[in-house]
Amino acid sequence: MSTSGFDRRLARAGLADLTAAIGCAVFGGVYEYFSHGVWSGHLVYAFLFLLAGGALPCSALALSGCRHPPGRWSLGLYHAGLAALTVGSLMQGALEIYGTSSSLIRFYGIGGGILLSAGALVYLAGRIGGTAPSAAKRP
Prior knowledge:
71% helix
């Protein structure tokens, strides 16, 4: 089996996302267990941002031997967006279980969306301009 197309950086990012998704799922389960029968969909499914948005795409790109992998900036911005969406979902779920709400929670979604979009735009700009940051050799 040839590993010439295998991207270790993306594989590590996918593994980190999978680990964080498992951590979020465990946290959500423990929080739900001690919430005395009150539950929140935001808290239960918060791990899906990291799993579907991070672990699966990064692992698929790493295993497929993507010819143009995302660079450090685009991957960092993208993962910051995933983190903002996940934390916002966890906070919304905790507030729902507590029985209150906050109008500030929406900024997690807005900020997460902006960061995800910025990561995608940096990646596309590198692809279109032909100077993908990931193509540069590391010292």
